[in-house]
Request: fold
Amino acid sequence: MPRRKTLTYAAAKKSMAMADSYGRAHLLMDLYFHMDIEAWFKLLGEEWSGCDNLATYRQDLGNIFGWAFKKGHHLLAMDEAERSVLGAMPDVLRVYRGCYAHNQDGLSWTMERATAEQFPMLNRYRHEDMQPLLLTGTVPRHLAILKMDRQESEVISPFVTVLSVEHIEAH
Reply:
């Protein structure tokens, strides 16, 4: 579907306010086709943490990020403080992901090992019949989006190289 840049940022933001956490990702992806790319990336950064099912769009987001990182659009998904903190980090970031075998290929990582270890234990993500995993990886700083709004030091990127996979002991 071709992009028709007909929707303003303000109108898109208003429509996002009406969506619940499971509908936000769908709406956000639909808005991609109706907004200016710079405005869409700003909206993505503001709404990312309020979306519960972004994994559904992992391939689409990976494709969008593939060229957006080259053009610098991903910088618009971060506020000034996040860009500043990211810019002061090493060229290669060590990141962690707490997950299960079925969702290892996610876009959301954290720079805090303890935070990653807790994620599969949260009731909303817990799978009693599955072994929780801790992935450790690296990602070049210039291929990462940093979100600090939930005190998770979240790193968003489809370009993480996984170095190790460990089992997490369930509590």
Notes: The helical segments are 9-16, 24-32, 37-47, 58-71, 80-87, 113-118. The CA atoms of residues 4 and 159 lie 28 Å apart. The first helix runs from residue 9 to 16.
